[in-house]
């Protein structure tokens, strides 16, 4: 949601991004494109791609969330939950730095 807020606030042309990159069947701000759009936005404001490696953890978090939400057999233990919570906090902290 924070990435979406930043993109909208800064008038990032998401529709143009989707068209330019061949995502013609994707919804605006879908999970499948938001990370790529955010990386594109960051590059446009002068942030190097290598400084965005922390964004790669988004896919891992999304995968775990989907398993927990939709597969009643998938149980996340407290250690794994805390580990993923730290990953999520790191992503949010980095997004906050870009927003400032």
How does this structure look, described?
With 100 residues, the protein is mostly helical. 65% of the residues lie in helices and 0% in strands. The protein contains 5 helices and no strands. The longest helix has 22 residues, at 78-99. The two termini are 16 Å apart.
What's the short story on this structure?
The protein is 65% helix and 0% strand.
Task: Based on the model shown, name its key terms.
100 residues; 65% helix
From the helix content, strand content and strand pairing, which structural class follows?
Answer: mainly alpha
Order of helices and strands: HHHHH
Strand content: under 5%
User: Low-confidence runs (pLDDT<50, min 5 residues)?
Assistant: none
Q: What's the average pLDDT?
A: 89
Helix content: 55-70%
Total number of strands: 0
Largest sheet: none
Computed CA radius of gyration, to the nearest angstrom: 15 Å
| Overall geometric form | globular
Give me the number of helical elements.
Answer: 5
Distance N terminus to C terminus? 16 Å
Topology of this structure?
Elements: H1 2-9, H2 14-20, H3 31-44, H4 57-70, H5 78-99
